[in-house]
């Protein structure tokens, strides 16, 4: 035994020791069956500094924690009663029922909110958009809390203010404080001027007078009634007069009725004069009609109307349209108190009539209005203006319910420009179909609608002439429209539009001509049509033809484009229908009127959603062909491709008379591909007759019948197979079942010494045969070489193996002997 060992290095395989003092222990695996450990507590262990990556602690005394940042996303801070709670970015206060009564921080909508809530949970004070309406109780805002001149007129309920002033007649607005014009004229002075003007008009009324004068060679008679002199000018209040003039050259009579109404503060003058004079070879009839409507601005306190012909008394004058063909328009008598109304029946969106005003100043408030009757649908009044950047802005008001109602829209112009007013169903995507009536259309300055009146700048004068001469009758109608723009009571612009319609009838033709000119009568364009003996001509204009339902069915525009709605029928000289274009299809008929075929849009019988273009042949047609003319001197066309019916020029089917170049592409179908004297046709058959057999079908002609034969393919690529194993078929046993027969063929009586009967092979194994379907539905049986040849080759291998065994036996016997 070694009692004391001191060595620098030692390698010990097994060390058994009772006590070991080891300063440093480098160990791989240490196994200890009996170990004494030291119990570490807070009393006997103090860790000066330590890094603990992850600790599992049963309990932790908070007093021992010196914290820098405590994340509220990881700690939920809550009072013992649950009345206050801080979670994340939100602090909440709850009542004894656990309901949130106050919140500060981010809410459920991810917005910062400070709110106080009642017992039901309703109420919010402040969020990111500002102070809420319910945060301020009624009556909390006092007069001293609002600065002087801080409430705009739009914030005041004007109707409520007027009602409150007039409620007990204790408050009033002095007429001396109401200004009527820029000159500072007040309301009381304005009414005094009105009363004074009317008094002066009454003082100058003259009595009924009758004048009869006799001069040399003529007698004149005049009966008149009441005139009023106003400021040196004569105004006829009511003028009914008869004038009779007799001279040596003729007798002329004039009857005139002139009425003026002051109740509407407008003056309407209507005069009709008829003069008939007979000259040599000529009778001339002249009818002059003028309708002048002017507002008397000195008496009318309303703003002028900037819409012309707003009651449609002159039809569609000054109005344009954006109507589809299926929508209709008309001018009808109105039951609203206004004489006429515009009627529109819409069958699509955005069906309107429109009028552009004259140029209006920028930054000015206007009100547009119309009185409308809604029979069906929802109508719109739309205003279109341009802003300072030139972009178009639109404003719309829609009708509510049915019957008569006013549509009003107040807007502010953004630039000095014209304003477009639309009547119809401008934006009504959900109410495309409707019937509406519009009348009393106006745009006036200010925030309120006035009683309707015609535009003060609208003057419409017309002149009609009928001249009957010896060889010519001429009818002429002229229209003169004058437009003036007034700024500060001064005419800043004046333009005149003259339109003339003239019709002349001569022995050789009827000519109608329409000329349009502007400013001084300079012609802009002339449109005319001329009817001659053999011609009807339209010059510089479009042609439109409407049916009895006022639907445009044929039209030609000024550029020559022709459009048609309906069908076209073509008849030959014998009145036999030869062609028609109807129902999206071109129809062709033969000489007897029988339908041959057509070209048009069709669809599949089993799926009408699949549509396409079809060239079809009806029963009266014998063929469809493509033909070409081989030379310019030829009078015939050569057929290059055709379909013939049975019994026609060629055999039934598609027949080609030219080379067919596929340019490397394939013909993919199950129809016949090849035809010759013996091979009638070839095509590919997939799995026909069962058995999973694909084959090339050959239609052959024999002496008596036509048969279908099959040529099978034998795919044997390893990449096309799986689960490849050695066969267990005993080929010799299988071949021993084959019956080899001799027989003669029915077709030609030819004898064959050896062969198979397909039905007998089928009884051995159905895979040995496949069936080729015939035209009559029957099947011709054929053998499948790809199934029989492997059996034969396997039988040869089995025979060779048996031969080898027998050969070895023979060799052994030979050696023994």
- Poorly predicted sequence stretches spanning 5 or more consecutive residues: 201-219, 237-242, 255-301, 484-495, 519-523
CATH superfamily of the domain at 303-452: Galactose-binding domain-like
What CATH architecture label of the domain at 303-452 applies? Sandwich
Number of strands: 49
Can you tell me the CATH topology of the domain at 303-452?
Jelly Rolls
In angstroms, what is the radius of gyration?
54 Å
Task: Sketch the major β-sheet.
Answer: 8 strands, antiparallel
- Summed over residues and divided by their number, the pLDDT gives a mean of 73
> How many helical stretches?
5
Strand residue content: 35-45%
Structural commentary:
A hairpin with a 4-residue loop joins strand 30 (522-531) and strand 31. Among the domains are: 77-132, no CATH class; 203-294, no CATH class; 303-452, Jelly Rolls (Sandwich); 679-799, no CATH class. The strands form twelve sheets. Strands 14-15-26-27-28-29-30-31 form an eight-stranded antiparallel sheet, with no helix packed on it. Strands 1-2-3-4-5-6-7 form a seven-stranded antiparallel sheet, with no helix packed on it. A five-stranded antiparallel sheet has the order 16-19-24-21-22, with no helix packed on it. It is 9% helix and 41% strand. It is flat and about 165 Å long. The protein starts with 76 loop residues before the first strand and ends with a helix. The chain has 817 residues and is mainly beta.
